[in-house]
From TrEMBL:
Key words, A-Z: Membrane, Transmembrane, Transmembrane helix
Topology of this chain in the membrane: Multi-pass membrane protein
Species this protein is from: Hymenobacter frigidus
Positions of transmembrane segments: 20-39, 72-91, 153-171, 207-228, 234-260, 272-292, 304-333
Protein name, UniProt field: AI-2E family transporter
Similarity field: Belongs to the autoinducer-2 exporter (AI-2E) (TC 2.A.86) family.
Amino acid sequence: MKSSDPFVAVENIYTPRQRYVLLVASLVGLAALMAFGLAQYLTAFLAAGILFVVFRPWWVALVHRRRWNRRLVAIGLLLVTVVVLVIPFYALTSLLLDRLIAFARNPEQLMGVIHKLERATGFTLTEQLNVRQVLLQVAQKVSSWLPTLASSALNFLVIVGLMLFTMYYMFMQETFFLLGLHRYLPFRGETLQELGESLKNNVSANVLGQVLVSVVQGILTGLTLWFFAVPDPLFWGVVAFFAAFLPVLGTPLVWGPAALYQFSQGHNGQALGILLVGFILIINVDNVLRIVLAKRMGNIHPLITLVGLVLGVEIFGIIGLVVGPLLVSYFLVLMEVFRRENRAHKTGQPT
């Protein structure tokens, strides 16, 4: 029986191989187009995936083991995210940005400190115009890393809303989401397991572990500056919290200049005290915590973290603190998978 559709009998000009290639190209092109359109909100989806990994042990314990209501647990996790993460992060970064902008617009206080250092050391350090330009550049750079805060409040609410909405459906449709990853990602089962383990280690080391290290470092730095009478220790403690994410420079970027400030004011004993506490206590606490947490929460090499931070923050903003090291780790994992499978292919062994 002939089909009534006149297009069925029309000969297609493409071979099956060409149709396959064009299908893949179409999928890649559409995915790239969607990624380009959603680039402004990419941080929301990345943050949702990271928080899904962070909270999944809680989800498994409450939903799969204790059989609690899925919807109530998902809403509870969203509330924890807002109260514990979103609101404090917004407050801290707003404080940092506002103070940087204030310093950039009115550098007279900073210039007074610099002039005192010049008189004490006998060296001419800089001019007021240069200081103002440097501060403006620093403020603009930090603003580019925190686009959700530097832009409108509506944009911030949209990104947070997308993050929470994505988290909700990742938890509510957990089985469908995980099966989709196994079905559509072009990797073998053991490779997916390695990538999943790398994701878990990176999130543990660079989210839970690094945040804990940064909190301890920020508190110690703030208390040290308060004890030695440095002005505005709360603000500099917040700055130390963010600086502690850098595995090489870290909090010395804060308490080092604070010691110079006290020296410029003629308080040599207080300056020496800040340096002693910084070198003896703060740096050593940082080193001990990083070693302990690296073993307990994810064995991530410091070089991977450093390269990932530089790469991630430049591309993804503040969320790059986690995504950057994850990209480097995934690259190394896939290189190892390629080496293993290529060697097995050469020897004729099954992969």
